[in-house]
Specification:
By secondary structure, the chain is α/β, with parallel strands linked by helices. Helices cover 24% and strands 19% of the residues. The chain has a twelve-stranded mixed beta sheet with strand order 1-2-3-5-7-8-9-10-15-16-17-18. Helix 2 crosses helix 3 and helix 9 runs parallel beside helix 10.
């Protein structure tokens, strides 16, 4: 019998050999031992997506010395492993020294990884997913089912309580007079096209300083997709929160991302339960004088500065001003077609979820005169561990025309400058349906709306607008300039419907 030889396979083009190996049963790595010539094809599969811990970074250069492995790499799931702590320590908040240690490890790990990637040929196409946690975080999360309110405080804090008010920075925080977030020198990495600042898996997630995430993003000039999981719910230290927002605005104001097509940001800031409080003023000059919100302005500038941006999502009750859509001083004063007017030339989907609060320390809602402020809803909410209890007095249900109408005008004007828009969604106070707002802009071919509005079809543009029954708003409140802009966007055959809903 003639001896069989793999030579026939070896004569196949590499692309065809790779196709054959892909169809073989998993795992693929053992096939490399059949024939050395199979190795590049096998490793183009096994090295396409890797899970890397920061503790393994010293092995990375050796691991990817063969050029075909670098060419194969399509995704890096990168875990920054923070310094450990013991079971006794987890019952206490992180100290400033703990946070400095975490920042040093986080910044060094990111710098080392990006430095290695920057030394490779700029092939492009890599997706980078960054997470951060300490090993004991994961163990703590797995044991959460055993935790109860009766657990002694000395034993554990619930759901990430140890690091609930900690943020991961790339370096030391400078004094406020020196500019807040310290600048760190990171290399340019042309081969990253998608970047995810992701929440930790299997843990109560650590929080990234928003400016740190934006600084990392700045390293990727060919970036096409960005997904950021951030946090803006620091209520204990208002000065620190203002600095964090200011640093974030300062960095994104300088971002240059000409290839960006998708930007998705979760930036949660929960609305206070006590509607009698005075909200924090988040936008002031160094002298304490109220100013326009720099973060709203910076986000507006970023979305208009990315010429290929198609999908923008900013969710989780973000505290913003009308300038996220349009400069306040110019909402109704200039021609849409003026050269200086903002434009989103490729925007197809735009989703914004906003908070009841304004950055200037106000509310988008007024008290309902028919509600007793301190009777039925006058009770206390038991918050976690050592935090003060929060009084729950929910009586702000009426939209404030002085605050909400400029937002509505800016939004309506911005939509008219999105020539390719297919879907627009604006939400406010969505957890309380009777005082919530939902505004849907639907392009041709896009489904949506209440069942009774399906008769509108999808062959025309539509505005479907929902005001909660307690907002005090209805169809007559959007007549005039706003109504004219909405009708201008849908065109002669389009539809504008305003609905008041009640549970």
């Amino acid at each position: 019998m003639a001896e069989r030889s793999p030579s026939a396979l070896l004569t196949l083009p590499p692309e065809l050999l790779l196709l054959i190996i892909r169809y073989l049963p998993h795992p693929h790595s053992p096939y490399a031992s059949v024939c050395r010539a199979f190795l590049p094809a096998v490793e183009s599969i096994t090295f396409h997506a890797i899970h890397l811990k920061s503790t393994d970074l010293p092995r990375l250069p050796t691991l990817f010395t063969p050029a075909h492995r670098r060419r194969a790499l399509g995704s890096i799931d990168f875990d920054v492993v923070l310094p450990p702590y013991d079971s006794k320590t987890q019952a206490r908040r992180e100290t400033e020294e703990d946070q400095r240690r975490n920042n040093a490890v986080f910044g060094a790990a990111v710098q080392q990884l990006l430095g290695e990637l920057a030394s490779w040929d700029a092939k492009g196409g890599i997706t980078l997913i960054v997470r951060a946690y300490a090993e004991i975080d994961e163990l703590r999360y797995k044991n959460l089912d055993d935790w109860s309110w009766n657990t002694p405080k000395t034993e554990a804090l619930p759901e990430g309580g140890r690091y609930k008010y900690s943020f991961l920075h790339l370096g030391e925080m400078q004094d406020e007079g020196e500019g807040g977030e310290a600048e760190i020198q990171l290399p340019i990495v042309p081969n990253v096209e998608a970047f995810y600042a992701a929440p930790s898996q299997n843990t109560y997630s650590r929080h990234y300083a928003a400016a740190a995430v934006a600084t990392i993003t700045r390293c990727f000039p060919r970036l096409r997709h960005a997904v950021w999981s951030l946090w803006d719910s620091e209520h204990k230290d208002v000065r620190f929160r203002k600095r964090m927002r200011s640093d974030f605005a300062r960095i994104i104001a300088r971002l240059q991302l000409p290839n960006l097509t998708t930007l998705s940001i979760d930036y949660p800031s929960s609305s206070p339960l006590d509607h009698a409080i005075s909200p924090p003023v988040l936008c002031t000059s160094p002298a304490g004088v109220p100013t326009a919100d720099p973060l709203s302005r910076a986000l507006h500038a970023l979305t208009t500065r990315c010429p290929l941006l198609k999908n923008f999502s900013l969710t989780c009750e973000v505290v913003l001003s009308p300038e996220i859509f349009w400069p306040t001083h110019d909402i109704m004063n200039s021609d849409d077609n003026a050269p200086e007017s903002p434009i989103w030339p490729c925007m197809e989907e735009y989703h914004l979820s906003m908070n009841m609060l304004t950055p200037a320390g106000g509310w988008y809602y007024l008290p309902d005169p028919n509600l007793e402020k301190y009777d039925d809803d006058d009770y206390w909410v038991d918050s976690s561990d050592s935090e003060p209890e929060e009084r729950c007095r929910s009586f702000r249900t009426r939209l404030d025309p002085a605050e909400f109408r400029p937002l509505l005008q800016a939004m309506s004007r911005a939509v008219r400058r999105m020539p390719k828009l297919r879907r627009f969604l604006f939400e406010m106070n969505r957890l309380d349906s009777e005082s919530s707002v939902e505004i849907h802009g639907l392009g041709v071919g896009q489904p949506g709306g209440l069942t009774e509005w399906q008769e509108d079809g999808t062959s025309v543009r539509r505005w479907h607008v929902y005001f909660g029954s307690e907002t005090g708003w209805g169809a007559t409140d959007v007549e005039g300039d706003v109504g004219a802009m909405w009708k201008g966007w849908v065109g002669h055959a389009g539809v504008v419907r305003v609905h008041t809903w009640s549970v």
